[in-house]
Amino acid sequence: DKVLAELIEPYELRVATLLEFLQDVQPSLRYDIARLADPYGPSVTDADLQCLVVSEETRSGGEAVNRKRLENGLPALALYEILLMKDPDHSQNEEEKISSSSLRQRLLGTLLQPPRQDPALPSHPYVIGLTGGTGSGKTSIASRLGRLGAFVIDADKLGHAVYSPGGPAYGRVVATFGAEILNQDGTINRRVLGAKVFGNQERLKSLTDIVWPEMAQMVKEQIREAAAQGNCTWPSLLPLAALCF
């Protein structure tokens, strides 16, 4: 439940960094690093321990350790409380103290490691899909990347174009769902079509089996167009926003 837990460094790396720090502080210091698999660790079973260092935030945890030690027939530990260091550079959305959670938030938008070189992937164009629910920011991200030179493929628009009059899926959609889905001008009435398929998994699958392969083909054609222009391309094969550098 840590903030941005996926950015927490592996345990082995954290131990190596801690060892380096301890040796810098005091090479002759004796220490034992224990991996915690529960909230207590060895603090409630090690009879040799005498003191537990806590902060103003974790004092209640230290008190819980002492209750557990007493239950286990061990003497209570002396609790040595340290002050939390304030972070003078924290932003409005970050904690006032120096916090690893805040530090991880600052990593967002930065390159954490060089891009992985995969010989199986073509170097050009570079394709990325944007997916997400309504209001998740797909359009905003697509617009921003488009301003940076991305070749934008909007799969929503392709989804409409694919069954517009003259589109590759138009005839099959009309043949499958009937002429009653048509407006007077021959265009497909999306509201009428939606009423036929949404809530009916079999009909919805019939529609997607017609539309999605044609959309995928249109996406591939636009990727080839982007490559011919010397751009990279980013599509989504679902009816969601898509774009490309």
From TrEMBL:
BP terms from Gene Ontology: coenzyme A biosynthetic process
One annotated GO molecular function: dephospho-CoA kinase activity
Keyword Zinc: no
UniProt keyword terms in alphabetical order: ATP-binding, Nucleotide-binding
InterPro entries assigned to the protein according to its UniProt record, in alphabetical order: Depp_CoAkinase (IPR001977), P-loop_NTPase (IPR027417), Rossmann-like_a/b/a_fold (IPR014729)
CDD domains reported for this sequence: DPCK
Name recorded for this polypeptide: COASY synthase
Species in which this protein is naturally found: Indicator maculatus (spotted honeyguide)
